[in-house]
Design brief:
Elements lengths: L1 H25 L5 E4 H4 E3 L5 E10 L11 H13 L15 E9 L8 E8 L10 E8 L5 E8 L5 E6 L3 E6 L4 E10 L13 E6 L4 H15 L4 E3 L4 E5 L8 H9 L2 E4 L4 E5 L4 E5 L3 E2 L2 E3 L3 E13 L10 E13 L4 E3 L5 H9 L5 H14 L2 E2 L1 E4 L1
Parallel strand pairs: 15-23
Antiparallel strand pairs: 1-14, 2-11, 3-4, 3-6, 4-5, 5-10, 6-7, 7-10, 8-9, 11-13, 12-13, 15-16, 17-22, 18-21, 19-20
């Protein structure tokens, strides 16, 4: 009996180990566990863009010139609103600049809330430093006013000019645009419905992926019951609110947002040729390939040598220019890279080439063109 019990015990342990191996093998390779709120948002819940036209006053002679007609007209209209009648000849100030004011209206915004605004010069103003934005209406795409903006403009730069014997100019960053923190006061409450009339809504994935969409729908069905969610495509998951949450969709979104799911990773290589930056992400693989890469450098050196005139000549000395051109081609041997299944091994294999980031960009593009690099390439 004891031997039979030990045999049954060993058999059970073996079955549990086999089940564990199957469960581990069933997980996607390099799966990343994330929260739902970090990879998806409710479709339709988004910011709204606002824009307005106004004047910035109080500039120290850095405003629009008199040749900017619309600035003069705007000043006349502003003064007329205060009961002052003027003509274009009366408006000769360089302390005012016409600007475009933009802001982003967040969802669920209420009357009395404040948002930041960006102020950008519209005319030929050289700097908005020290200026103050006059009360400006901000309108949406429906031409309805949703906020008003006003306040001191803060810029992250400066501009110095000194016109004397010569013209001197020193500019730091970009002084023709600035921001007003909490400069816009929302005047109209924005109503953003979370669900449709039938009690449904859609989750929109921030990074569309079929695996992520399927895992999101599966997690919602396991948590709230079968039939709650359905993956419509790689970027949309349709959700039908359970009856218990029809009148409390906020509680549903709060619980659903904290669920952990496995997010699929896209094999992508991002290249920035301006800065020589290479960023690799996702399940990148490399097929067996042979690479030979050589560098060709041309150096031109110019040397000026003073040649004095003869002992019996009154002519001034001459300058002789000597130019030397050197061509250097670095010899590279053919390197074989075996198929690499993981990102770490791909990086280790590419490092064996010993090339600069800019050369690596050219190599990655060639690998992608040959089909050896199993990833998408995006150039920014």
């Amino acid at each position: 009996m004891m031997q039979r019990f030990e045999a049954v015990k060993i058999w059970m342990v073996a079955m549990l180990c086999a089940a564990s191996v199957v469960a581990i093998a069933g997980l996607p390779a390099q799966a990343q566990t994330v929260r739902v709120k970090d990879v998806a948002k409710v479709q339709g819940v988004a910011n709204n863009q606002l824009v307005g036209y106004g004047l910035v006053t109080g500039l120290a002679g850095t405003g629009d010139s008199t040749s900017v007609v619309f600035t003069s007209k705007t000043i006349q209209n502003l003064l007329q609103a205060f009961g002052l009648s003027t003509s274009s000849q009366d408006v000769r100030t360089r302390n005012v600049a016409a600007v475009v004011v933009t802001a982003s209206l967040p969802p669920f915004a209420h009357s009395g809330d404040t948002v930041d605004v960006t102020v950008s010069s519209l005319g030929d103003s050289t700097s908005l430093q020290g200026g103050t934005l006059v009360l400006t209406q901000l309108r949406g795409a429906d031409n309805q006013a949703y906020a008003t903006a006003q306040g001191a403009v803060s810029i992250g730069g400066f501009s110095v000019q000194n016109v004397g014997a010569g013209t001197n100019s020193v500019t730091q960053n970009h002084p023709a645009a600035g921001r007003i923190p909490a400069g816009a006061l929302i005047a109209r409450t924005v109503t953003t419905p979370l669900q449709q009339n039938d009690g449904s809504f859609n989750y929109a994935l921030l990074q569309p992926d079929f695996n992520t969409a399927a895992n999101l729908a599966r997690a919602l069905n396991q948590r709230f019951g079968a039939g709650t969610a359905h993956a419509a495509d790689e970027g949309t998951v349709q959700v039908q609110l359970p009856p218990a949450y029809r009148s409390n969709e906020v509680d549903f979104l709060a619980q659903a947002g904290d669920l952990d799911i496995h997010a699929g990773q896209v094999a992508k290589v991002v290249l920035n040729e301006r800065t020589g930056t290479v960023v690799m992400g996702g399940d990148i693989t490399l097929a067996p390939v042979a690479i030979a890469h050589g560098n060709l450098s041309i150096t031109i050196t110019t040397t000026n040598t003073a040649v004095p005139s003869g002992p019996f000549s009154n002519a001034p000395g001459q300058t002789q220019t000597n130019t030397k051109i050197t061509v250097n081609e670095q010899k590279r041997r053919l390197i074989y890279l075996s198929g690499e299944p993981t990102l770490a091994r791909v990086v280790r294999a590419l490092n064996t080439l010993g090339v600069s980031p800019r050369d690596l960009i050219a190599i990655l593009q060639a690998l992608h063109a040959s089909g050896a690099l199993q990833a998408d390439i995006e150039i920014i």
